[in-house]
Design goal:
The chain is mainly α. The protein is 69% helix and 0% strand. InterPro entries: PAP2/HPO (IPR000326), PAP2/HPO_sf (IPR036938).
């Protein structure tokens, strides 16, 4: 029978505890690098910036009721709502006696929002698209929405994390698309915001696992009822995004000036859907993996049989 040490190391095998720590570290680094790649491609290159701006200009809110819904959703996603969610997260963590999760969720929300504001204010934006606008990458509204959703998924009991992840993904996607539809942000701004939140989320999970190093960890697996919708969304959105970018790239008009383009807008929406589904799928797996293995009582541990007289010794 294979035994696990308290640190999660498989006796006689490879150290699974190291893999347990490397997972969130690698995800955090990849998400951070992907944020920089998104900035470089869609802000620092002519074709990327014009395509991104064309996507933002490719729609116009003409329905008063829809415009009102979008405006209310965006207005509700502010620092006040972030503070309310932090209080709720702290209360849930206290009730579950998981102060480590409550602190990690607070660090996640604070770190992601501060990082977004620092990047937005300090990253330069060359006016390749002819618009003298300040840099808007990453999106603050999308960061707030994704960070609140991530924090709730982290502190909630495992039985409801999948439902919370699906609801959070829907909320984050709606806010991200609303900012583009209202022409507050380009699609790349929202994708970068989601990546910033994922980077911080993986980082706080690494911290939690380091603090709980001496505990026995049981491998957690999220429910298929939660992961399947996210997988299907990603499987549909990723190829649509790639094909849309390739098709738009071949258009001389779109590639040289930011003309309003419904194709670019739909491609941007598909890209947002892909980023949201993949980020929440990754986050659900990271959050579900944090689970304690029930400890065996001393009376239930196997006692080696005593050697009978005349039997072989060691």
């Amino acid at each position: 029978m294979t035994m696990l040490s308290p640190g999660g190391t498989r006796r006689g095998g490879r150290p699974s505890a190291v893999v347990h720590l490397l997972g969130p570290l690698v995800i955090s680094v990849l998400a951070g690098l992907s944020t920089l790649v998104t900035y470089h491609v869609f802000v620092r290159t002519i074709s990327g910036q014009t395509l991104d701006t064309a996507a933002m200009l490719g729609t116009d809110v003409q329905h008063p009721r829809l415009a009102g819904l979008l405006s209310n959703a965006l207005d509700a996603t502010n620092m006040r709502s972030v503070a309310v969610v932090c209080v709720i997260v702290a209360a849930i963590g206290g009730l579950r006696r998981r102060i480590d999760l409550a602190i990690a969720a607070a660090v996640l929300v604070l770190g992601a929002n501060v990082t977004t504001q620092l990047l937005k204010n300090r990253l330069p934006r060359p006016p390749f698209d002819g618009l003298q606008w300040e840099n808007s990458l990453p999106s603050g509204h999308t960061t707030a929405a994704a960070a609140m959703a991530f924090a709730l998924v982290l502190v909630l009991p495992e039985a409801v994390r999948g439902t919370a992840a699906l609801a959070g993904a829907g909320f984050t996607g709606a806010i991200a698309i609303s900012t583009v539809w209202a022409r507050w942000h380009r699609p790349s701004d929202t994708v970068a915001a989601i990546l910033v939140v994922l980077a911080w989320g993986a980082l706080v999970v690494l911290g939690i696992r380091l603090l709980r190093w001496t505990r026995q960890a049981a491998p957690g697996r999220p429910s298929w009822l939660a992961t399947l919708p996210l997988l299907v969304t990603a499987a549909l959105a990723v190829p649509v995004t790639v094909l849309g970018l390739l098709f738009a790239k071949t258009s001389a008009t779109v590639a040289t000036e930011p003309e309003p383009s419904r194709l670019s807008f739909l491609t941007g929406i598909a890209g947002i859907a892909a980023a949201v589904s993949l980020a929440f799928l990754t986050w659900l797996w990271l959050a579900t993996a944090d689970r304690d293995r029930p400890r065996e009582s001393s009376s239930s541990r196997a006692i080696p049989p005593a050697h009978e007289p005349g039997s072989p010794g060691r």
